[in-house]
């Protein structure tokens, strides 16, 4: 697990977007494992994101007219998976985030922490190897933020993920294996912290 920290405007979200092939750098190369994502065409980048990456944002971006179960199943349905199979996988992931009994609730009927847990299940339902999270606890109170981070830690370990999180919360950042500090768009400091990264983690 890697945390990216720094003041507002330092480039944290921009870096995350570039790592996830959502934005293209103006110069240089960006490798995710053996893939130079900076060189991918728009179609290749979309396929790469769909195959390799799960995203969680500060705001959950759940579709309000659909239930939690339907929201989690949506990425699978977009891949043309059959409805029964997609809903079965979504049910499994709602269980992973502790919301088995909330599948028929719409986002407006869920607490902030529950909404973010649904968003996390949706991010991981397709089995990505890389989780990118931009201030995933930024809208939550300290207690709820801690519980959501506990969940991210557990899923990171149990599913062998590489996880990169942008956060302003240094208490949470210190629980990651490595902290990258940005300033004015540049990497200013790398700190080893918390548990050691998994073998599949990010290096360099």
Query: What sequence of helices (H) and strands (E) makes up the elements?
Result: EHEEHEHHHEHEHEE
Determine the structural class based on helices, strands and strand pairing: alpha/beta
The quaternary state of the protein chains shown equals single chain
Chain-averaged pLDDT:
89
Number of domains as seen in the coordinates? 1
C-alpha Rg (nearest Å): 17 Å
CATH topology: Rossmann fold
Task: Report the span from N to C terminus.
Answer: 13 Å
Low-confidence stretches: 196-204
| Residues in helix, % | 25-40%
Provide the CATH architecture.
3-Layer(aba) Sandwich
CATH level-4 homologous superfamily: P-loop containing nucleotide triphosphate hydrolases
Please tally the β strands and state the result: 8
Descriptors:
alpha/beta; 6-stranded mixed beta sheet; 17% strand; disordered C terminus; Rossmann fold; 204 residues; two-stranded antiparallel ribbon; 7 helices
Structural account:
With 204 residues, the chain is an alpha/beta fold. The protein has one domain (2-192): Rossmann fold (3-Layer(aba) Sandwich), CATH 3.40.50.300. Helices cover 38% and strands 17% of the residues. The chain has 7 helices and 8 strands, in the order βαββαβαααβαβαββ. It has helices at 12-19, 42-52, 68-78, 83-96, 112-124, 142-158, 170-173, and strands spanning 2-5, 31-32, 35-36, 53-56, 130-134, 162-166, 178-183, 186-192. It has a 6-stranded mixed beta sheet with strand order 4-5-6-1-7-8. A two-stranded antiparallel ribbon has the order 2-3. A hairpin with a 2-residue loop joins strand 2 (31-32) and strand 3. Helix 3 (68-78) crosses helix 4 (83-96) and helix 3 packs parallel to helix 5 (112-124). The longest helix is centred in the C-terminal third of the chain and has 17 residues, at 142-158. 36% of the residues are buried. The model is unreliable at 196-204 (pLDDT under 50).
